[in-house]
Amino acid sequence: MNRAWGVRGVLVAILMLVASLAQSGATLRVETPAGLRSALAQARPGTVIELAGGEYGKLEMRRARFTAAAPLILRSQTADDPARFSGLDMRRVAHVTLDGVVFDYTFAPGDRLRHRPFQMRDITGVTIRRALFDGDVARGLGPADNGFGSGFGFWVRGGTGLTIEASEIRGFYKGIIVNTVDDVVLRGNDLHSLRMDGMNLAAVQGVRIEDNAIHNFRRSPNSKDHADMIQFWTKGTDRPSRDVVIRDNLLASGDGLFTQSIFIRNQEVDQGRAGRAMFYRNFTIEQNIILNAHLHGITVGETEGLVIRNNTLARNARSVGPRDSRNLYTPTIRVAEGARDVTIQANVTPRIVGYDGQPSWRVARNFTIQHEPRGRGGFYGAVFTGDPAVPAGFGYRLGGQLDGAGLGAGRLQP
Q1: What's the rounded Cα separation, in Å, for the pair 336 and 361?
Q2: How much is the pLDDT for 371?
Q3: 51, 69, 148, 265: least surrounded by Cβ within 10 Å?
């Protein structure tokens, strides 16, 4: 038999076997970028692609549609030696899970701060779990940019069904950007060492932001950045975000410069371009711990159906800026006076701004704290223990006024 034809026959048999296994929802083990491309081309609903450790370049998928009952799963074979991708571009994909992989961005000449190395468009049912999004610093741009995080950690626009959980996002200009996506879960993630924004969302519906740690930003103090840990906005959009829960998150500036913590401005309404139809709808913000040094601790614009309850906001003196302004560097709760059906209840905060007897507002059982003078009620030293710059040791003082009172974030109880 001709040796060349024998080799070709073996290769054909292997490809047929891969296709058969993929069709049956089997697990395929891949070790090279070429092997991954072949596996993706053959994948069917239920296929699991296990990736050996190593570099796989850019992961690209177009019009790859699987099912909720039998998604395509790409996962690293071992956590100690994960698969690494230098880029991600997925468009019109359905029911894909990425598990335990690394998305590693390297700044290149010509990249801008808003570069999107890892992006998706028009998705359905995508899950990213136990991933690392590892950023890089800018070089050759200018003194306010060089040496600080560049690019977006993860950017997505359009679709329904996105989950990012148990993942780490670090070292970028912005962390997670979600635009015009419904049914979003951002849960159990660790975002840190970012320059500007942690989570940035617009025109989204059905969102849960739960149990995340967003902390220790690496700000550019000479820039004009308005950094936010969690930001919602409406500018230039034609539908308001609605049905949003922000719960059980730790937002802590640590040793970094101050940021705005939860900032939900409604530009389309407050700048007069839209009316009640563009009010945010049904937001719940509860059980969050905010240890920061900017007055926008929890700030919410024009909304219909807003609950802010059992949050604790305390000033982290290590993160104050250069101005001589206690008010600017103290986190507060602030709600637009035109908001409707508002409940602000059982929070621990230095101040609440926006309530002026509106009949649809309910403001009750909030506890006012202050960091000076010592002899006045609610003094930090009397109600807290530990340093707000070190969240692990910060909590309610045993036997103090907040011990067992059912006020603020329950995780701070002794």
Answers
A1: 12
A2: 81
A3: 69
Model pLDDT, residue 375: 67
Residue type (1 letter), 304: E
Quote the CA–CA distance of 325 and 313 in Å, as a whole number: 18
Alpha carbon distances (Å) from 319 to 255, 257, 315, 377: 6, 5, 9, 24
Rounded distance between C-alpha atoms, residue 35 and residue 83, angstroms: 13
Give the residue among 244, 217, 219 at the shortest CA–CA distance from 233.
244
Amino acid at 274: A
Copy the structure tokens of residue 237. Answer: 């959009």
**What is the rounded average pLDDT of the residues 282-295?**
98
Longest dimension (CA), the chain: 97
**pTM greater than the 0.70 cutoff:** yes
Q: What share of the chain is helix, strand, coil (3-state, %, to 5)?
A: 10, 45, 45
Both tokens of residue 252? 């802590």
CB atoms within 10 A of CB 150: 27
CA distance 32 to 122: 28
Provide the 8-state DSSP code for 393.
Answer: G
As a whole number, mean pLDDT of residues 209-216 equals 98
Q: For residue range 302-328, what is the model confidence (pLDDT) as tens digits? A: 999 999 999 999 999 999 998 878 889
| CA atoms of 377 and 390, how far apart (whole Å) | 24
Q: How far is it, in rounded angstroms, from Cα 272 to Cα 269?
A: 5
CA atoms of 391 and 208, how far apart (whole Å): 23
* Pairwise CA distance, residues 114 & 131, whole Å: 21
- How many Cα atoms are found within 13 Å in the side-chain-facing hemisphere of 65? 4
In DSSP notation, 17-34 reads HHHHHHHTT-EEEE-SHH
